[in-house]
Design goal:
InterPro entries: Topo_IA, Topo_IA_2, Topo_IA_cen, Topo_IA_cen_sub1, Topo_IA_cen_sub2, Topo_IA_cen_sub3, Topo_IA_core_domain, Topo_IA_DNA-bd_dom. A hairpin with a 2-residue loop joins β19 and β20. Helix content is 35%, strand content 21%. It folds into 5 domains: 166 residues, 3-Layer(aba) Sandwich (Rossmann fold); 144 residues, Topoisomerase I, domain 2 (Orthogonal Bundle), CATH 1.10.460.10; 117 residues, Distorted Sandwich (Topoisomerase I, domain 3), CATH 2.70.20.10; 120 residues, Topoisomerase I, domain 4, CATH 1.10.290; 72 residues, no CATH class. With 694 residues, it is an alpha+beta fold. The protein contains 19 helices and 28 strands. The strands form 8 sheets. Strands 2-3-4-1-9-10-11 form a 7-stranded mixed beta sheet, sandwiched between helices.
Amino acid sequence: MKTIIAEKPSVAREIASLLGASDKKDGYLTGNGYFVTWAFGHLIGLGMPEDYGISGFQKETLPILPNPFILTVRKVKKDKSYTADTGALKQLKIIEQLFNKSDSIIVATDAGREGELIFRYIYEYLKSNKPFERLWISSLTEKAIKQGFDNLKSGKEFDGLYQAAQGRSRADWLVGINATQALSIAAGNGIYSLGRVQTPTLALICKRYLENKNFSVKKYWQIQLLHHKELIDFKSLSKTKWEDQKLADDTLKSIQRSNNATVTSVETKSVTEQPPLLFDLTGLQKEANKKLGLSAEETLNIAQSLYEKKFITYPRTGSKHIPEDMWAEIPNLVRSLQDRETCKQAVTKMKWGRFNKRIVNDLRVTDHHGLLITDKTPSALNVKENAIYDMIAFRLLEALSQACTKEITDVTLQVTHYDFTTKGCKIIEAGWRAIKGSFSDEDTEAIQDLPELKAGDELKINDATVLEKKTKPPVLYTEAGLLSAMESAGKEIENEDEREALQNIGIGTPATRAAIIETLFTRNYIQREKKSLIPTEKGLQVYELVKERKIVDVAMTAEWELALQKIENNEADAGAFQKEMEQYASTITDELLQTSIAQSNLPKLVCPKCKSQQLIIRDKIVKCSDEVCGWVQFRNICGVQISIADIENLVDNRKTNLIKGMKSKAGKKFDAYIVLNDDYSTSFEFEKNKPKRK
């Protein structure tokens, strides 16, 4: 018998039905010489400090450097402590029994770093020594699974992948556990969670937020002219930016008197825009955030669902290319879109026999190729699934199309010694831009049509106006912007090709970035303000404490990702990487323990109930330091974190400011004041209805 282990039940069922293992048992399926079972994600993980006999946060025990690391069954929180997950224990017992009854194992967990770790931690924990092979597939279609079983690979081929996954897992433990404990001890005021990737990511958001907030906006003025020639209206703009409005107004008057502009130069150049490559996961998440407002995690979940329904290939990919041997399948994928209502029109624009091979590059394919649709035509998808599927389908059609050729014309005009400029664009060959019919990117200004112009031409000024403009602060990060910053290790890289060359030194991986952003939300370090990500009071507090420390070094975190990549490719030693991480954990522990945390930024408030003891202000609660008095106020009320200023108002004035955006149990948003009652409990007071304006 052979045991096949998948990452989750749905995938196990697909494989079992294909192999004729149709006999359902508790926790597995069997038949035709196979047991087909599954994990529920990470059943086994690294033990916590308690598993090493270390309880609580103690300065003397830091840094904690396990040797060896202990593996434990997944734990869940029960009351105030953690206990082994009963579901995980039960499934693990089933897996152990099946391994023991089998001659060998086939690993069918997701074909990537985390999938490898899920299996290997189970294998190691159960002390199994059964030989195993690897099913390595990029889609769950019947054809792909059959091909995968025909080409099973030796488990040893993936030792590098496992060592990289284990290295990442241990590095996160060493940095996360030690840094969190060290800063929390130094603060003596609640728990400050830090992490190897989460803290540099928080630093990116906080730094940008503070640059935006502290930016001093300056006004300036430019003059815009309106012209008309050969039935075309077009505008030109002064090169000069006046900082004094009066000077701009005076210039406007002299221009109006002149009423004529002279063309001084006309430069026309041909620009070739190559089609975009296929989506990798980060690219898809960025596009879905920009166009659909979806979070990185939502996009990943939708893509995972489409993958499990066999409509797209494996989504957690970091590649935008396909290998040469897949090129023959591409026309078939395009044909499958002919019957899809949303794609029909675009498919008619494809030049059959002239598909662009720019996406083919064996050297640029990582664990998995770029995101593709499969030849299975989608049915019964929800609105968001349809939108994500179409994004991937349209990107494939664009990638296979020819380059777009444009003619860009830059014109300089002169009026009374002042230079004005205008830009025109003519599409020579629409190429890939014809697929969706959009000829300029949404974030660039639309370029106008221009008439034929040459140097020396006189143009009448039909209208002239002074425009008031403002210097713009650095924009707050949206999720799309943050993903770009994580991808390029915080470097602002506009050029697509340069960005691609540097894609291997980002922070996090395409598979983990969504989870990192979600962790920052869970920790209450960041929040959404419309589409922007901004730090909370707590997030800024953590940033202020660590901003000068090594733990926020984005470039260093990016170098670790590169080191893990080398371990995966058997080009670097996993043991040396772990030693480096232990050394780093020791350094940051010392650094953070010496952090002097000014408590002066917290107000000294006297308990409103006993009126004698000082209040202890924590992240989650405010409480009287006298146990007997026991007055306590939770700071998270109906999904909103109550600020320190509002706590002050509540204690001193018995009422907060109006708190907006709280959510009732039914999920409805409401605004209210929180008031301190005579018995020192708190309740809501709602705004009196304002008379409506007629």
